[in-house]
Amino acid sequence: MKDKGIIVKTRIRELRKLHKLSQAELADAVGTTRQTITSIEVGKYTASLVLAYKIAKYFNLSIEEVFDFSEVDMEG
């Protein structure tokens, strides 16, 4: 099944600011690049399940508390 270009909205920027983290600091903490964090925040990239889990775990939240799946068509 191919992703139809759906981008999942996130609270990453809001959570970073709340915790006074830069994109680079969050990227280092979850094992990715600052560019990836930027792309996720601006909606140009959807995090993999593994990365989504790492980001959520970093903030001690569930994936659903960080990523908004309400606009994703789960049917196909």
Explain this structure.
This protein has a two-stranded antiparallel ribbon with strand order 1-2. The protein is mostly helical. Helix 2 (about 25-30) packs across helix 3 (about 35-40). The protein has a single domain (about 10-70), classed as Orthogonal Bundle (434 Repressor (Amino-terminal Domain)), CATH 1.10.260.40. The chain is built from five helices and two strands, in the order E-H-H-H-H-H-E. The chain is globular.
Question: In a nutshell, what does this entry contain?
Answer:
The chain is built from five helices and two strands. It has 76 residues and is mostly helical.
Key structural traits:
two-stranded antiparallel sheet, mainly alpha, 49% helix, 76 residues, 5 helices, 434 Repressor (Amino-terminal Domain)
Label the structural class: mainly alpha
- Overall structural domain count: 1
CATH homologous superfamily assignment: lambda repressor-like DNA-binding domains
Q: How helix-rich are the residues, as a percent range? A: 40-55%
Q: Which secondary structure elements does this structure contain, and how are they paired or packed?
A:
Layout: E1 9-10, H1 12-18, H2 23-30, H3 34-41, H4 49-58, H5 63-66, E2 67-68
Antiparallel strand pairs: 1-2
